[in-house]
Each structure stands twice: as structure tokens, then as C-alpha cells.
Amino acid sequence: MSDVIIVDSDDFQLSDRNKWVRNGLPREYGASTFYAVEVGPTWSYTFVGSTVEVLGALRPGLPNTDVEFYIDGSLAGTFTSPTIDGTEKSRWHQSFFKKTGLDPNTNHTIQGRQATLPDPNQKGPIFFDYILYTPSKKTVFDKTTRFFIDDRDTRVNFSHPRAEDWVLPSGGNFTYDDFFGRGITNTTDPSNVVTFSFTGTKIEVFGCKDVLSTPRSNFTLDSNAPAFISLQAEPDDELRYNVALWESPALQGDVQHTLRMNHVDGTGGLCLDYFLVTPAVQSPGFFESSGLPPYAIALAVLTGVFGLIIIGGLAWWFLRKRRRVRSGSQSMSGGEEEDKDVEQELSFTVAPEMMVTPFSATSSSAGAEQQRHSGPVKTPLEPVRSPSANANPSPNIIEQRPKGAASPLSSSDVVGPSTTQEQQSSGDDAQSRATSPPAYQGVGTLENAAEIGSSEKRRSQSIQEDEGQGLAI
């Protein structure tokens, strides 16, 4: 048989609670039911499963009424209550509606609506008690989920054939309709053992209690010690329904458990009606396997975890290595830029002692004396280009002279004695060169600056020698 989840009427979503009345008797699930007091109110419940069934009770001596059932907003069926004579008993655990073949992977909403009510002053005979639906692998379980297993379920095993040794309780005013699944199992033989295997976090056993009986029963779960349960006698002759016989402590939800039950002694016997099993929260199923054993699922989970750890470690190592490479590149680039800055600073900053001022001798003492009294001759200078004006400055030294300044004299330029005006002009030129040191441009290092200074010094000495020879002539 397939798994079945039971839902109490207390879990229904009611459209208007003022139009519903809560009722309940011991024979009903959870001792609670609902019935409508006028036409039109609805109740609903949403689930994921392939089959759904609505059950409840019918009260005798009431007029017939109709109830409509909708699946996902579409009318799926109508139930009309039968006529029950007032002298008859109520009928419990009656099926009002059942729908099969639903998509097991989709949410479905079942809705019940009170369609007719002949006498507005009298309640209807239909009492909604609970829903049974078949879940799927998409069904999500929570702490309120309960699987329902009737005592006639084929997964409940008996040590002796039921027809021979399992009989109805003795005495009492009841029928098979008083029990879930329209039947119970009862035995007074201690050798008759009931065995039921399940997977879940808890199991509860429900049954009935015979009239004025004091039975003692044994419940053994897995390899645990037996639990002996004794029921006390009741003061009247009424049979007790939905009696909680025994429940387990919290269990491991991902392993299979086995429960063994049998009557031990005392009057009466062991009376079984149904079992409720609490599944593990959000487990994929109850009895049906998902296709993989637990160890395979655990191995897959561990593999995924270790895979994520390895991927995360590789990503961390790669990012760390990338940062190191980037940091090293920035350091090398910074060092190169610093070297360039030093070279530029050395190129344009020359020590005063390295500055060479070209020397030009005066042609006569008279001209020199006149220049001393009249002061230096202010000759306009040609503009000097900025080093940034040329992206690749030439390392050659460009000598800047005042406008109109004559080139240094050589021996071939002097023909004979100079006149007084020429001597005066020569003295002016020499004084102008003495007061206006040449400007240097270009890029060079400290060694280049020293070499340039030495070259200028030799050139100045050559000019002085040439001028001396000219004067001597």
C-alpha cells in the first residue's frame, strides 16, 4: 500500500468561521469535526500529492443536503447525504469524496462548499472530520505531518492468521463503522505478535479499550527493553475509541525501526486500530525509497562539501598569487620611475663649481676701464627652450650667446693691430660673456656634466691663447 498522510479538520482553512460550527466525539479523529449552518461557506486545504479523500460523519434524523468539492478551482464532485432514520446510530469515517490521478509534482487545493441546506434553522447531517492524501517526493513535511497506517494495512504483519485468532472485542454497542478503516484487531493470546516496520522520528499506537477490562500489553521497539502498558477499567459499559495505547520517544529519522506488540495478561486483550508515524522533516518519502541508500546520499553530500573546500582553496591561492605578481610589477615600475626622476634631477641640476663661464680678454686697458665705469652692457638674450618642449631632448649642449655677440677669435681672424673702436667692442663682448654664463639644455648624468665642464674649460683656455697671440701681433 502507498503512503497516506492524515490531516485533521482543525487544520482546514475556513472561509468564515462564523458560518461553521466545531463539534466532536471520541470516535472522530482528534475528537473534532465541522459543519455548516447556512449555504455558501467553504473550507480548503493545499497539498502536494496524487490522491485525496475527504471523510467525516453522518448524523441520523437530519434532512438531506449537498456538498460540492472543487480541485484547483474546478468542480470535481458532489456528495448528497443519505437518509438515516433517527433510530439509527451515527456513521463515522464515511468517505464523501475521493480524487485520483492528480499531478504528484504540483500544489493542489481541495475545497468543500455547503451547496444546499433545506432547513436554515437546522444543522445539516454532514460533518467534516479529516483528509487523507497520498504524498509525492515533492511533498514537504513539517512537525505536524502524520502518516496514517490502518491496522488492516498489508505492512502490518501478524504471527497468526487474522481470521483465526484476531476477533472483535467482546461486548459493547459498536459496529465496524466506529473504527478507522471500518475495522479493528483484537487478541487475548500472548503468543500472537504484531510486527510493524517503519522509518520516522516517532510512532503512536491507537486502539480501543474493552468494556470493564484491564489488559496489559507489551511494546518492544528495536532492541530496547519491553514497555508494559496497563489500562484501567472504566466505570460504564461504553467501549473507548481512539485510545492512545503507546508512543515512542524521539527516534533517528533516517533508519528503519521495528515495533513488536502482543497481549501479556489481564482481562480483555490487545485492541489495535491504527498507527501514526511522524516522518523526518522535509524527507523525500516515508516507506518508498528515493532510489539511493542512505550511505550513498551521505557520500554524495560529503563529496560536495570537500569539492567546495578544494575549489575555495584554489581560488584563494590564485588570488593571492595574482596579488603578489601585481605587487611586484608595481614595485619594479616604481623603481624605474624613481631612477628616471634621479636622472632628470641630475641632468638639470648642475653644481656651481661645474658651471664654466667662457672668458674673453679685453682688447685694451682703456676699454676695460671705460666698461668698469659705465657698468655691464645689458644685451638682450635669446629665449631658451624648455626641456619639456622636446619629448626627446638632445644630449648635445647648446650654447646661448647674447644677440650680436661675436664668436671667439682665432688666430686666423686677426690681421693686424686693432683700432680703438674694435678694442672697445672687444672689451664689451668679453664683459658681456663674463656676466652672462651660457645656458645648458638636454639630458645628461653627473659624469656628462663633468665632461662638459672640462671641455668648456679647454675651449676657454684656447680662446685666451688665441687672443693673446692676436694682441702680441
Secondary structure: elements and pairs:
Layout: E1 5-8, E2 13-14, E3 20-23, E4 33-36, E5 42-58, E6 66-71, E7 74-80, E8 91-99, E9 107-114, E10 126-135, E11 147-150, E12 156-158, H1 162-165, E13 185-187, E14 194-199, E15 202-209, E16 216-221, E17 227-230, E18 240-247, E19 256-265, E20 270-278, H2 294-348, H3 365-374, H4 420-435, H5 446-472
Antiparallel strand pairs: 1-10, 2-5, 3-4, 5-8, 5-9, 5-10, 6-7, 6-9, 11-20, 12-14, 13-20, 14-19, 15-18, 15-20, 16-17, 16-19
Helix pairs in contact: 3-4
What attributes characterize this protein structure?
single chain, 473 residues, alpha+beta, 8-stranded antiparallel sheet, 5 helices, 24% helix, 28% strand, elongated
Which sheet architecture does the biggest sheet show? 8 strands, antiparallel
Class from helix and strand fractions: alpha+beta
Residue windows where pLDDT falls under 50 for at least 5 positions: 283-291, 345-445
- Element pattern in H and E: EEEEEEEEEEEEHEEEEEEEEHHHH
Task: Report the helical percentage.
Answer: 10-25%
Measured between the Cα atoms of the first and last residue, the distance is 140 Å
Give the number of helices: 5
**How big a fraction of the residues is strand?**
25-35%
Which term fits the overall shape? elongated
SS elements, strand count: 20
* Average pLDDT score: 74
Nearest-angstrom radius of gyration?
57 Å
